[in-house]
Q: What sequence folds into this?
């Protein structure tokens, strides 16, 4: 199975699947056929814990009739990978360093990694 | 000690066309008009060109389309597309090709009609598959997230970002070729429509039509073509990522490395440079590049650009044509950093001409802070 398909099948099953390099133990995102850290090719898959933190973000401004403003965030998962995502709720409440939980939701009917603020 | 390619090529012709608005013309038309002007400036003609260096937004094989349009059959081509930095990057491949005898007359050219044709920034790139669903506004959201991180980590303010735009406009006000020439204030920038926080409309580059071209030859024949050849003393590239999510640290660009190697190749240091032309697609760029190229410490770029330091009359001349923020930005701005740097050395700048420029730096940026290319140009006195 190709790396991209394994990742997408994971999303369809409600799982955030990450690759992990057997040689250097780095976690890898986006999915690929080699480890970008050590270039090893022996990769296995783990499910992300979902624990994550907002690295940076922006609020994309959009007219209300087009759907209004929305958040685009860069989050770092506890496993050490960074990905683009969206934090639920009012975009004005998002802040750098905020703890979030990454989960599989959907965007335009397709499964996608989203984040919600965790209580702390 | 000298790098083998230091000073081996020279820019002997410069041309621009269609800056601002060129209704009805295609991007190829504007590219070709620029090319003809640069060749005329060098006393050469299209039939003399045997090396072609070109990237365009309109085609996946732009250098072939350009050669076809121009009616030439180049024996050396480079169409490497690294975004707006491509044209600074071509200084490296053109210098190497000229020095190796793979070509004798190198033409670097670009054109775009994106203002009058579409009214918005045209990009050849599709959003990467793992980012597209979140609908970042490309490319501004990537730069906005870098700015947000810089503000968080170093206390950089929107006012300091605004000072970059105000300074650029200060130069553009005196440049007949600049698209936006009315002076602006910090307040204007802060009050302009927010696009992707923390970047507002006036933190973003223009969307214009326009083209630029330059002609290079080997240094030993440069004087046959130019009264004042501009020598390529150093040029170096580095890239860190393509997708913004993969950028190692959003506050540090590969300009740290491209700058270091370009300075080493040229055998000069940052304080030797008389004028800097930095690819300012967004106000945060200028701050990042001043830090990464060694003009101030990491994190101090915001304070560095405040109070008119990089505006006309300030202590460091940056983006003397008005930059992508206020002069022109036809999709990719990189070639214009080199053109303005070369003008300053020749003494032919269309706007404010500085006195006694011997060393100029042109810095190209491509993608979303992805590709960084630094070039150092010099007068004959620097050889």
A:
């Amino acid at each position: 199975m190709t790396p991209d398909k394994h990742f997408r099948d994971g999303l369809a099953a409600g799982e955030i699947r990450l690759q992990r390099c057997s040689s250097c133990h780095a976690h890898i995102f986006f999915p690929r056929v080699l480890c970008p850290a050590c270039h090893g090719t022996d990769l296995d898959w783990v499910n992300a814990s979902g624990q994550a933190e907002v690295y940076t973000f922006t609020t994309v401004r959009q007219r209300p009739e087009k759907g209004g403003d929305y958040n685009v965030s860069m989050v770092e998962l506890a496993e050490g990978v960074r990905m683009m995502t969206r934090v639920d709720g009012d975009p004005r409440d998002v802040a750098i360093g905020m703890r979030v939980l990454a989960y599989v939701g959907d965007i335009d009917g397709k499964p996608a990694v989203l984040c919600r603020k965790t209580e702390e | 000690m000298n790098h083998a390619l230091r000073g081996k090529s020279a820019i002997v012709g410069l041309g621009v066309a269609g800056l601002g608005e060129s209704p009805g013309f295609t991007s190829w038309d504007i590219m070709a008009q620029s090319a003809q002007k640069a060749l005329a400036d060098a006393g050469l003609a299209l039939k003399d060109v045997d090396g072609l260096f070109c990237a365009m937004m309109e085609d996946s094989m732009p250098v072939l389309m350009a050669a076809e349009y121009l009616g030439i059959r180049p024996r050396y081509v480079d169409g490497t597309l690294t975004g707006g930095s491509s044209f600074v990057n071509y200084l490296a491949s053109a210098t190497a090709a000229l020095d190796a005898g793979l070509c004798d007359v190198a033409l670097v050219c670009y054109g775009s009609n994106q203002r009058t044709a579409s009214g918005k920034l045209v990009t050849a790139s599709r959003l990467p598959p793992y980012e597209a669903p979140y609908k970042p506004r490309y490319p501004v959201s990537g730069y906005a997230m870098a700015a947000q991180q810089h503000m968080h980590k170093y206390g950089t303010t929107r006012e300091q970002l605004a000072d970059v735009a105000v300074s650029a406009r200060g130069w553009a006000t005196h440049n007949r070729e600049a698209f936006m020439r009315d002076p602006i204030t910090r307040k204007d920038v802060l009050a302009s429509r927010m696009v992707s926080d923390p970047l507002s409309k006036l933190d973003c580059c223009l969307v214009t039509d326009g083209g630029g071209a330059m002609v290079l030859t080997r240094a030993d024949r440069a004087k046959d073509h130019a009264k004042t050849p501009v020598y390529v003393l150093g040029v170096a590239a580095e890239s860190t990522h393509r997708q913004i999510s993969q950028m190692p640290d959003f506050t540090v660009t590969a300009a740290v490395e491209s700058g270091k190697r370009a300075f080493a190749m040229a055998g000069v240091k940052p304080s030797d440079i008389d004028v800097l032309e930095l690819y300012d697609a967004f106000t945060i760029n200028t701050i990042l590049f001043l830090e990464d190229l060694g003009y101030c410490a990491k994190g101090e770029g915001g304070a560095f650009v405040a109070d008119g330091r990089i505006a006309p009359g300030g202590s460091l001349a940056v983006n003397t044509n008005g930059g992508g923020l206020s002069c022109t930005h036809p999709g990719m701005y990189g070639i214009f950093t080199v053109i303005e740097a070369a003008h300053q050395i020749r003494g032919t700048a269309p706007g404010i001409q500085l006195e006694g420029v011997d060393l100029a730096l042109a810095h190209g940026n491509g993608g979303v802070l992805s590709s960084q290319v630094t070039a150092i140009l010099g007068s004959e006195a620097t050889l």
In short: Residues 49-120 of chain A form a domain with the OB fold (Dihydrolipoamide Acetyltransferase, E2P) fold (CATH 2.40.50.840).
